[in-house]
Write a structure and sequence with these properties.
Length: 354
């Protein structure tokens, strides 16, 4: 099969035309194990994580095993199932959760599998979906609703990050600040709007993304560096208090500080963005004396977030078409990363199979 492989400890990915088919957990090449599902991949989203792996930064060097098939966001069709699989049949359209757990640790068994201790991520710790075929345990496969197109199925992983971040805080009839409107932040604007936020403020350092955030439903967009005094403007519109909810989706330390500055006393923050290194933060002022409630957000809740995503997608209120800026053939993967690096592309989807 064709695959994009991290073949060497260096920048880039290798296009391989003759990668062997995935091996089932019972050791047979190209055949799903008893409870596994073999998926023919149709479309796959390119993510910031893939960019780290492509650029071979410090994080990637410390985490990614060479020889791995990359990619973790996908939509496809079931090709074959193991004998113990009843729910999925060949031909069914599916997406799937890329965080795999053995469902044995404390969190997996108590409704919090998204923070399982033994989580392995496809395209990071084991073979992923930038390939003609992907093998997943049946417990990780999500049936794709007939009315949800493949290109949306291929971005359910980041959309799920956005939905999880929004829903964990709760935004209905609340004022919301989203710091960072990149891929996931833009999705969060759309989700927060659909979920009934009363007023949505956003910040970013990229004017084009701020414009798009407004198109997707943000009421006011501020340049995090150039719009001095924007926090005061937010307070003026929130009874002088600050926002009810902060959704931090940039991972940039200055944005995190601004976000908490703009959060009202007793407000709620959902933090998804990942700072690239340890940062200093005024815990006393921003959390303790403020009485702030803070949620760390990791991945997607299984499967609450997926049900919420399906419901939201079926309302057709999410502006995903504006966020998926490019769909290109898998062979042009270098261009996908160039589009992300230049900022010309936001969400780039690879067309892998028909
Ligand atoms: N916790 C998780 O499970 C999880 C999952 C996926 C991604 N993430 C993290 O979420 C964050 C967002 O991911 P993404 O794919 O949307 O990335 P992205 O690069 O598309 O978005 C980041 C955005 O932050 C903006 N930004 C830069 N400086 C800023 C500033 N000073 N103030 C406000 N915004 C600023 C950028 O212009 C960009 O639009 C990243 O930190 C990523 O690592 C976390
Ligand atoms: Zn991703």
């Amino acid at each position: 099969m064709r695959a994009l492989v991290k073949a060497s400890r260096d920048v880039g990915l290798d296009f391989v035309a003759d990668r062997p088919m995935p091996t089932g957990c019972h050791g047979v090449v190209g055949e799903p194990g008893p409870t596994e599902v073999l998926i023919r991949v149709k479309k796959a989203g390119v993510c910031g994580t893939d960019r780290h792996i492509y650029e071979w930064d410090e994080w990637a060097q410390g985490r990614i095993p060479t020889g791995i098939v990359t990619g973790h966001e996908f939509a496809g069709v079931v090709e074959a199932v193991g004998p113990g699989v009843e729910r999925f049949k060949p031909g069914m359209r599916v997406s799937g959760e890329g965080h795999i757990t053995k469902w044995q640790d404390y969190n997996s068994r108590t409704g919090n599998a998204h923070i399982a201790r033994d989580t392995k991520i496809i395209g990071v710790d084991r073979d992923g979906c930038f390939a003609d075929y992907l093998l997943l345990p049946q417990s990780n496969v999500w049936p794709l609703h007939d009315e949800i197109p493949d290109e949306f199925g291929a971005v359910m992983d980041p959309l799920g990050n956005a939905v999880h971040t929004v829903m964990e805080a709760g935004v209905s009839a609340k004022s919301v600040l989203i710091t960072g409107v990149g891929i996931i932040g833009l999705m969060a604007v759309s989700v927060a709007r659909a979920a009934g936020a009363s007023r949505i403020f956003v910040t970013d350092a990229n004017p084009a993304r701020l414009e798009l955030a407004k198109e997707l439903g943000a009421d006011e967009a501020f340049h995090a560096i150039e719009d001095e005094g924007f926090i005061e403007r937010i307070r003026e519109q929130t009874h002088g208090e600050g926002v009810d909810v902060l959704l931090e989706i940039s991972g940039v330390p200055s944005a995190i500080n601004q976000g908490f500055e703009a959060l009202r006393n007793g407000g709620t923050a959902s933090l998804l963005g990942i700072p690239s290194k340890t940062m200093t933060f005024d815990l006393t002022r921003h959390i303790i004396f403020k009485g702030a409630k803070v949620h760390g957000i990791n991945g997607r809740r299984m499967w609450e977030t997926w049900y919420q995503m399906e419901t939201l997608l079926l309302t057709r209120k999410l502006g995903l078409r504006k966020i998926i800026t490019h769909e290109i053939p898998m062979e042009d993967y270098n261009r996908a990363f160039e589009l992300m690096q230049s900022g010309e592309g936001i969400k780039v989807v690879l067309n892998i199979g028909a």
